[in-house]
Amino acid sequence: MSTSTSAVDNILAAADREWRALGIHRRDRVTLAADLRAELEAAAADGLNPAELLGADPTEFTLRIAEEAGVERTPPRYGQVLGVATAGAMLSLVVGYLVVISLHQAFVAAFDLPRSVHVPLWLAAGVFYGGVAAVVVAGAVLAVRIALRDAPHIRHTTARMTLLLPPAIAAAIATATAFAWSLNFPLTPLAIVAEAAIVLAAFLAATALARRWSVTAAG
Known about the structure:
Elements: H1 3-21, H2 26-45, H3 58-69, H4 78-102, H5 104-111, H6 121-147, H7 154-182, H8 189-217
C-alpha cells in the first residue's frame, strides 16, 4: 500500500467519524466517502498531499462537504434521550416500590414457602435484581417512546434500548456485586454510591449506544 493510499484511507476514516457524529445516514456517508476518495486520489495523482485539501480544520471541511451535498442529518439529541430515559427509570422504580409496599401482605401470602423449602441465595438474588432491571428497562423505554415520540428514529432507538439495556444492566449488577464482595459488602455511603454509579454508567452507556446506533444506521 502506497503512502498516499494510506493517507487517503486515514482521511476517509476520520471523515466518516465526523459524519457519524453529525447524524448523517449510512447510505449518504457511503456516497460522500466515494466522492471524497475520488477527489483525494486525483489530488494525490497530481503530486499533492491529500491532507492539504482538508485545510486547517478537518471537521469544518467534512461538515461543508455534507452541507454542499444536501444530505439529511438527524440530530442525535443525546441529552434529551438520556435525561428522559433516566427520569423514566427512576419514576418506574418509585412506582414499583410503592406497589410492592401497598401489596406487601398479598405478596407474602402468595410466596410464603414452608420452612422445609430452602430457596438458593443466587436464585432469590436473581429474581430480585431481575425484577428491578425489568422495571427499569420498561420505565426507560416507555418514557423515551412517549415523551420523545416526535423525535426522528425514536422507535428504532427504543427497540435497541430494549435489546441493549438488559445485558448492560446485568453486567453492571454483577460488577457492582463483585466490587462489594471484594470489600466484604460494606454498607457505607461511599460504597453504596460507587455501586449505584457502576449501574448508572452502564445504563447511560447502553442508552447512548442505542441512540447512536439508530441515528447512524438509519437510511
